[in-house]
Write a structure and sequence with these properties.
Layout (H helix, E strand, L loop, with lengths): L3 E4 L4 H9 L5 E2 L6 H10 L4 H17 L5 E12 L2 E3 L5 H11 L3 E12 L2 E14 L4 H15 L16 E5 L2 H5 L3 H10 L7
Parallel strand pairs: 1-2, 1-3
Antiparallel strand pairs: 3-4, 3-5, 5-6, 6-7
Amino acid sequence: MKINIILASGSHIRATLLRSSGVVFDVKKHKIDEDKEKKTLIKNNIITKEISMTLAKRKGMCVSKNYKNSFIIGCDQVLVLNNLIFSKAKNPSDLKQQLLLLNGKSHKLYSSCVVLYQEEIVWSHTAEIVLLMRELSQREINTYVDKNWQSVKNSVGGYLIESTGKKLFKTIHGDYFSALGLPIIELLNFLISKKAVNIV
């Protein structure tokens, strides 16, 4: 019997990556307070890479408790510039300040994904992506945010690489799909190995 798949995220791009790969799944949004959880982890001096993994696990676990016979996919991304960890911008002004801090600099994006079954983690993966942002003028930043706020407000970095956001960067080193929010190749390998997804 094929195991059901549930994405514990309201992310449009994650759902699109799964759907375009031929994965049949349901969406059940997690109910954890990401900002509160992240602040607690930072306060407890948890390393950045582990913050993204821990949040991905908690999101997945939140949904897994109610769906015992399904593979639950939990995801999270954490952006860090030097030792400064970013959260999703609260408003356009906040995002403009965030992009000013990233302007012309290289930063890291940790993208974590877990699969749970019966409230147990059966697979996990974290990718590290290094992004170098172009030197942008204040006007360019303001225009970008004003035009794209509704699309980018749920992105941890305030940019959508799959759309106009790719123009903000000089270089991106690492897995492109992980930068979007889901290590789809690695995830598919797991799901196919468990016969939850057919190759053709």
